[in-house]
Amino acid sequence: MILRSAKTFASGYILGVLLGLGVKILLPGLYLYLLYLLEQKVVVQSAIAGGYSIGILLNNLLASLLCSYGGYLTTQVFLRLRSPGSAAIRRLSFLEKRVRNLRGENLNFFLSLYTLPFFILGFNGLVLGFLLILYASRPLEYLSGLFPHGLFELPAIILAGSIGYSIGEAVFTHRSGLEKEINIRARKHMPRYFLVLFLLVIGAYLEP
After folding, report:
1. 50 found inside a domain
2. Which pLDDT score is estimated for 34?
3. CB-hemisphere CA count at 13 Å for 125?
């Protein structure tokens, strides 16, 4: 699942690079405005440097929680409601081809289990890819914004995504007893989630 999580992140990154190139070429005015906003963001961050790392840590903690256990928590609501599966969800087969073969509640729970890790991983990758283009003329500044804390934060978010995906696999392997299985998987991956938290704390400590 770590490989799937990394692929999702990488796909978002590539999409972000392409989006950034499109904005730079087709909308130069917007590109310059975004550069201005980035410069203002740096000024503000410098003024509140003392609390900046805490803010980043809280943001990363929320993202990691939603990415790893957000789908699980959402599914608990679905399980209580016992909503019937919707054939419209099969349109999400671009996320996972096996969704075409799901029936009943498993089909609905695919949506709740897989959507959050997919979009959080993809969005984080997209933002970094987009920033690569905005900082194209300042590569050292881009790299300094990523490292060394990114050496801990990026693996943490990818690991969090792998937890979410691993729990989500239950919809493909269990036609019955789904609720019990996702509970087992959620408990099983708690040590990995504590590792995610540990990596994020280290990353926040190293935040410039």
Report:
1. no
2. 79
3. 22
pTM of the complete model: 0.83
Q: Structural domain tally of the chain?
A: 1
Higher pLDDT, 111 or 65: 65
Q: Residue 195 has which token pair? A: 């590792």
Give the other-Cβ count within 10 Å of 173's Cβ.
10
Distances 124 to 59, 69, 92, 104, 134 between C-alpha atoms, Å: 12, 17, 20, 32, 16
Reported as type and span, the H/E element at residue 195 is: helix 190-205
What interhelical angle do 104-134 and 150-168 show, nearest 10? 160
3-class SS of residue 69 = helix
Structure tokens of 205?
A: 């400590």
Place of tokens 């130069």: 28
CB 43 within 8 Å of CB 191: no
Domain span at 88: 2-45+59-205
**Domain assignment present for 52:** no
Crossing angle for the helix pair 178-188 and 104-134, to the nearest 10 degrees: 40
Return the pLDDT at 75: 78
Q: Is the pLDDT score of 162 beyond 80?
A: yes
First to last CA, the chain: 31
**Residue 54 domain flag:** no
How many whole angstroms separate alpha carbon 130 and alpha carbon 136?
Answer: 10
pLDDT tens track for 26-49: 888 887 887 777 766 655 554 554
Residue type, 53: S
